[in-house]
Design goal:
Distance between the termini of chain B: 17 Å
Order of helices and strands of chain B: EHHHHHHHHHHHH
Number of helices of chain A: 8
CATH superfamily of the largest domain in chain A: P-loop containing nucleotide triphosphate hydrolases
Structural class of chain B: mainly alpha
Radius of gyration of chain A: 26 Å
Distance between the termini of chain A: 84 Å
CATH class of the largest domain in chain A: Alpha Beta
Number of helices of chain B: 12
CATH architecture of the largest domain in chain A: 3-Layer(aba) Sandwich
Number of domains of chain A: 2
Number of strands of chain B: 1
Helix content of chain B: 55-70%
Structural class of chain A: alpha+beta
Oligomer: heterodimer
Order of helices and strands of chain A: EHEEHEEHHHEHEHEEHEEEEEEEEEEE
């Protein structure tokens, strides 16, 4: 017998938009009456592609198309892809939340999927009560939870607050508790969606460690993440999803490097960022670069001053005099972090007042060699990341030296410093 | 989802397929999740208890006030007969039973819409949610039932116009039937609301009308004999009337009507489960 525990065969998922579901009985009756008289349906969505508007194939789109892969027992499979590539849909089908349009998935063993932290947590219930509720939602029996209770509480590190309603928890505590429950599920197959984007670094490492341990006991883990570092340390095998299809399947290392290359042609923005996460409380709405005269730009000369800017909407809970920390990051195109600037490192207090926030970080010059770079930004409160947008902008450092003879390559280093050559040519 | 246990050749525990038949139902799964049902019930009880000032006292206040209003309007003003029973008892017996049914119906009717978020993130048998609602409402019923019993005791000591009888033994069955009927029609409506949001409004006055088609504010004896067959089509009519007869000893018991009522209840319950089961597989894509 083979040791394959997940077998996905030609899996497709199509979503229908528009005319299928009117939502109200009145409209359905209207449509039916119109059809009966041979008139045009007054409720059909007029499409831009087909002005005749008979609601055909253009109202459908494929979230997944003909996906096939297999996972062996004890394997750690990483799935990467941009937002909207179909990762979430795939995980939803694997965890039985939604049915596929065609294809088959065969699974051996109990599946626990962590598509979101704290699903079903009730704010009025205490931490302990929520452990039981959350565990039961994931299919655990009461005895199972009881057996693991102490371990869960210890893992989440919330002994003191276990009898406090979770509505009083900080978002970090909330995430820790939620992950702790999921990590102790004892399933044969664990599916984890981007849940590690929140919580502090230390706890993220703890979670990764836990997931690694889980796989060592012969359990299978499917992990979706935008954190290339985490996913490449954890997983051996990888899949890249792009436009509803599998773009690559093989070693994780290769997948990560291919994925990074594919970003070259991508258009990035806050809505269309590679990675987003956070506990909520603030929402970054725009991140951009500006030049000396505060004009938006994505071309920077290395010796000119520039600003990294962000705009955010603050939710009521954080609107009055909360000290937030804002960070900006610049990554090389390959995804390697080159620079991180955090407001609190400069002892700059960013205190909220009202629902909007604009922050900028000034750099007198950017010592980077010409090329393309990626921009990231985050807002946090104490230890909790409220919102994080990774790789939400692309900019180019241009070369101001119009007359250079030997073009520079990456082999010459990432940064450029101010330097002046002097020489003396002499004879004797 | 469309999980089929054991495909002999390869020992798969779960097979996920696009479409499954109407009868691909896994009721055994619900039993496996019985802890979840109780925890849901507990959660709902605790949240009601913690979020209202009067807490469980609402459960007493509501039937009490309704009984008083009915006594004044239907008893004193409209002077509708009550089969010779004390007004307060007559109305309260109807209200307490009706409350249980209508609570089950209305509270299960938005299962999909109000749980869309959690349903979208994790799989567990969706029926656990409405079943837990029916169970938690049993607690509300128990509180109100005690109120009814004490009022009954008071009248029993004071006068001898009420005659509790052996039909009382039928109470658990009547209760179960109301639970089944409330659950069945509730999940039927909740399945329809995923497609037609205006079902919610229909439900609002639908329940109201249904109450007036049930012997709550009048006794069944007021219905002319030639319309009794039509009246029998309302499964709640026989339940309320039997309940009232069992505890108070006035009214009419028609075994045939009870049988029809039971049949219709089962029909609605089965239809509800089938439709609910069908919808739960696709509804995440429509919300």
């Amino acid at each position: 017998m083979s040791d394959i525990v997940i077998k996905v065969e030609e899996l497709s998922k199509q979503y229908r938009l528009g005319t299928i579901n009117h939502g109200t009985l009145h409209q359905d009756l209207q449509s039916w009456w119109a059809r009966l008289r041979g008139r045009e349906d007054p409720n059909s969505i007029i499409s831009l592609h087909h002005p005749a508007g008979n609601g055909g194939d253009n109202e459908r789109f494929w979230a997944l198309k003909d996906i096939s892969f297999q996972v062996k027992q004890g394997e750690l499979l990483g799935i990467i892809g941009r937002n909207g590539a179909g990762k979430s849909t795939l995980l939803k089908i694997l965890s039985s939340v939604t049915a596929p349009s065609s294809g088959v998935v065969k699974i051996k063993g109990r599946v626990a999927s962590l598509l979101e932290v704290g699903t079903g947590f009730h704010p009025e219930l205490t931490g302990r009560e929520n452990i039981f509720l959350n565990g039961a939602i994931f299919g655990m029996r009461k005895e199972e939870i009881k057996r693991n209770l102490d371990e869960i509480i210890a893992f989440a590190d919330i002994e003191k607050f276990i009898n406090t309603p979770v509505k009083r928890y900080s978002s970090g505590m909330y995430v820790r508790l939620a992950f702790a429950v999921a990590a102790h599920l004892e399933p044969e197959i664990l599916i984890v969606d981007e849940v590690l984007a929140v919580g502090d670094i230390q706890f993220q490492k703890k979670c990764l460690g836990k997931m690694e341990n889980v796989s060592k006991t012969g359990k299978t883990v499917l992990f979706v993440s935008h954190n290339m570092e985490a996913i490449s340390t954890l997983c051996k095998k990888g899949i890249i999803l792009a436009d509803a299809k599998i773009a690559y399947q093989g070693s994780m290392e290769e997948a990560v490097s291919m994925y990074k290359k594919s970003m070259l042609n991508a258009s990035l923005s806050v809505e269309n960022s590679v990675n987003r996460g956070g506990a909520g409380g603030a929402k970054i709405t725009d991140v951009w670069l500006s030049n000396e005269s505060k004009e938006k730009t994505d071309n920077i000369a290395p010796d000119k001053p520039l600003r990294l800017n962000l705009k955010a909407e603050i939710e009521p809970a954080y609107q009055s005099s909360k000290n937030l920390t804002v960070g900006f990051g610049i990554d090389s195109f390959e995804g390697r972090r080159l620079f991180t600037g955090v407001s609190s490192w400069k002892n700059k207090e960013i205190t909220t007042k009202g629902k909007r926030l604009e922050v900028s970080c000034q750099l007198p010059f950017i010592p980077l060699i010409p090329g393309k770079y990626l921009l990231s930004a985050s807002i946090s409160y104490q230890m909790d990341t409220l919102d994080y947008v990774g790789h939400c902008g692309l900019f180019e450092v241009t070369d101001d030296e119009s007359s250079f003879h030997s073009p520079r390559s990456r082999d010459h280093g990432d940064i450029t410093l101010k330097y002046i050559f002097e020489y003396r040519a002499y004879d004797n | 989802m469309s999980t089929t246990n054991d495909t002999k050749s390869e020992n798969w525990t779960t097979i996920i397929r696009p479409h499954s038949g109407w009868f691909d139902i896994h009721l055994a799964e619900i039993w496996r999740y019985r802890d979840l049902i109780l925890l849901f019930a507990r959660r709902d009880f605790v949240s009601v208890y913690k979020q209202t000032i009067l807490g469980p006292f609402w459960f007493l206040l509501q039937p009490l006030l309704t009984t008083l209003v009915f006594t004044v309007i239907f008893g004193r003003v409209a002077k509708i007969p009550t089969d010779g029973l004390p007004h307060l008892l007559f109305y309260m017996s109807g209200i307490v039973t009706w409350q249980y049914f209508s609570n089950c119906l209305t509270k299960t009717s938005d299962t999909f819409v109000s749980n869309a978020h959690i349903f979208g993130k994790v799989y567990f048998p969706r029926l656990t949610v409405p079943v837990s609602i029916v169970i938690i409402n049993l607690l509300t019923f128990a509180i109100q039932f005690v109120l009814f019993l004490s009022l009954m005791g008071f009248f029993y000591l004071k006068s001898s116009s009420i005659h509790p009888n052996k039909w009382i033994l039928l109470t658990p069955i009547l209760l179960l039937q109301m639970a089944a009927l409330g659950l069945g029609s509730g999940i039927l409506v909740s399945s329809l609301t995923t497609k037609y949001r205006d079902m919610t409004f229909v439900l609002g006055f639908g329940v109201q009308l249904w109450m007036y088609a049930t012997p709550i504010v009048y006794p069944m004896s007021q219905i002319p004999e030639k319309w009794q067959w039509l009246y029998s089509l309302n499964p709640m009519a026989a339940i309320v009337e039997t309940f009232r007869y069992a505890f108070l000893g006035a009214g009419t018991i028609r075994p045939l009507q009870l049988g029809i009522s039971l049949g219709i209840t089962l029909l609605i319950l089965i239809a509800g489960i089938l439709l609910f089961n069908r919808i739960e597989k696709t509804f995440m894509d429509t919300v």
